[in-house]
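Problem 12. The chain below contains 171 residues. Write out its predicted structure in token notation.
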Amino acid sequence: GEATRDIPVIVLSGRQCHTDEKVRCFQLGADDFLCKPFENEELIARIFALLRRNHKEGEREEGQRFEQVKQLREIIDHRLIEPNFQPLYLVDSTCQLFGLEVLSRPKVEGVFKNPEVLFSTALELGFYYELEMMVWQKALEALKNRAPCQNIFLNCSPYLIENNNFPQVRA
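Solution.
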């Protein structure tokens, strides 16, 4: 499960080991495999090697998360989102303009240039509400300089509605 995902597994076997059994253990998620007889020093060395490897991976992931948080803060603090407006038309004989849907385009390079990656990472790291509110604010500011439109559609995710601050938006 998720709670034990990062715990290294070493299989210790008291039976005669065959390659197919070892391969099967690795396919099931084992990180190492030892057959008896083995020396305690070898087992201890393998344990420390696995712990070192997992520690380095954890540090790398932590560094990546730090960089993502830093980039998200920069996007939010410097309002690096460009609102775009997608026209929505009635599907009837008139094909009349019904309204505008607000779409967000990050004004950054790299992985966060993709709005889907930006918003899913913001959700994962706890910045979704703050990012979405900034996007809405910029969109509403941009609409002041456009011809009036009867209906404006702002994306509203369930994650946004579930946020404790959301009732303040409706007020």
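Discussion. Residues 40-77 form the longest helix (38 residues). Students who got a different answer should revisit the alignment rule from Section 12.3.
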